[in-house]
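Appendix B: complex inputs.
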Amino acid sequence: MKKVLMVGNVACGKTTLLQALDNQPLEYKKTQSIEVIAGNIDSPGEYLERRVNLQNLLVTSVDTDLVLFLMDPTQDRYMYSGGQAMAFPVPVAGVITKKDLATEEQLQQAKELLELTGADPIFFVSSYTGEGLDELRNFLE
Ligand SMILES: Nc1nc2c(ncn2[C@@H]2O[C@H](COP(=O)(O)OP(=O)(O)OP(=O)(O)O)[C@@H](O)[C@H]2O)c(=O)[nH]1
Ligand SMILES: [Mg+2]
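Resulting structure:
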């Protein structure tokens, strides 16, 4: 499986998705710093949200095969910038999280916003119901 770096707002579902992909029990734990989960790299949402920390994500991604830009369709805050995927030295794919909570309209809007970053392809998942996880796993194989 590809080694990935998780990027996304605070509470968008990065840690929960890594647990779900690894079939671990879903346990909430605030990510405080760069952390390894099942061979992948988890980051705190503050690394995306505070501009001063962005460099940490770029440097950390060098040691991975793929970056995942995550987006919670139920959150209004958009912290990415247009074309941001191009700044990374490895490919960037997108994941819309919390599919179980979002309306169809929220999902479509999140997809359009995430596409602006250049992330491709884009997956829709729910770590709670498991929807979309197999498709994402296949891509990561
Ligand atoms: N309903 C639902 N809730 C989810 C899902 N994924 C995550 N959550 C919830 O969203 C909250 C935040 O999830 P985390 O995985 O901790 O978010 P994070 O992106 O790692 O956040 P930071 O570590 O703060 O950057 C938790 O209460 C999770 O249980 C999902 O697919 N569906
Ligand atoms: Mg986390």
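The two ends are 4 Å apart (CA to CA).
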